[in-house]
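Slide 14.
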Amino acid sequence: MSRKYSESLSKYLKRSDDLKSVNYIAKEFLELMRQKCENCMKYRIECALQPHCENRKYINVLIDLQVKPGDLPAFCYTQHKRNIENYLKGKPYIVEVEDSKLYLMDFLELLGEKKLAKKSPDKICDALELKFSRKDEKFFFQIEPNKSFIYIYEGRLNKIDFETGIVTLNLQNEFPIDESELQDVLNILESFYDLNLLINVEMLGWWYLEFKFDDPKRIKNVNKKIEETRNALLKHSSHVYYYNIKKALHLLIDLKTPNHLNWKKIQYPISRILKIFNIVNELLRE
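Slide 15: predicted structure.
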């Protein structure tokens, strides 16, 4: 029953104005999960190797709810941090790191930068920029002062939210919270893939990503490849066009933004944006 009606419940929670019912569901859910956590942590090997909640997603939910560190299931959070530490150090890790969350102070500690925890956001950004750029020449970032630090490191997109004190690693199923954050993500990916991107604002909540290729003739079977690219992009975007001006190829892809009136229904996860850039990049590298 839980799988059969989970989507219906999710839709209900999104649209419901009945706070009494929503609060009841929230209390019951948290109590049931508390019991599930306790049962999981009774068997520590099982909790460490095969947690009862898929990929420790419940820990991520609790952190997103800004639950105090002391109120988290302690042993599970210890395993969560250890898994992410191995991921950051390039060691084998057990649970997939995808949209994985940590408190900023714990993230800095895992990086060996615990002293930065008491520093201002701009000092933290400066220190991390220096640290990451030394290890990865394809490190790119965007800063919203005192708000966020979004960066790509070793090919994965990450976000530090200074307002909540939460770090999200390997962004995939998260959504841009506003157009400013979406712009930051697009700028980072443009630099990472070394593309020529222009953003055209069509109307409220509707942009066109315009990619320009100055020398399309160097692409083998260019007409065939462009059509294949267009078909691939149409799986991730409603409208895709291309045209030539002064020998340059222009590829236009529509993208809805958080300001769109129907954003809740059509919102684009980061993974979808990443896929668009991957497809465009494959065309350029042919």
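Speaker note: The CA atoms of residues 151 and 190 lie 12 Å apart.
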